[in-house]
Write the structure tokens for this entry.
Amino acid sequence: MAKNDVVMTQAFEGEEDWVTTGDPLRWLKANILLAIKYSPYKDDLREFLKTL
């Protein structure tokens, strides 16, 4: 991928979370993790996930 396309990364200072988005499930897990930790919607998302 890096040979042909741009690869984007984001470092979060002081955090040790390492996520990869190489397949649909990992993409989903990465987005949920980051949304719960850093999103202004984290409280609403946590409540939604509890209902599942």
